[in-house]
What does this fold into?
Amino acid sequence: MEEHNQFMQNISGWSEELLLRGLSQFTIRDIEVLEQLAVESLRLQKSFLHELLSGILDTGRRVALGQGDEDQLLAQYCRLTQYVQLSLQEEA
It folds into this structure.
């Protein structure tokens, strides 16, 4: 469970950083971080979390290239952060 909690903390840290920068500031570095998190979610057998991360990754790529829908990214971001917060609350 400690590994799961640490993983959720990593996602939370990234999401807080993005929130402070603003979703419109989604960058290639965010894509790299999300790719690593998506791989780790599969290793931990968190399929729904992987789905959430993959959705943000796909939309974020388009936003970073100036072709994406920031409203869609915001909705996906909110779903992910809610999932992570609920997961962390359950651990507490």
Observations:
- The mean pLDDT is 93.
- The helical segments are 2-21, 28-43, 47-64, 70-91.
- The CA atoms of residues 31 and 57 lie 6 Å apart.
- The two ends are 11 Å apart (CA to CA).
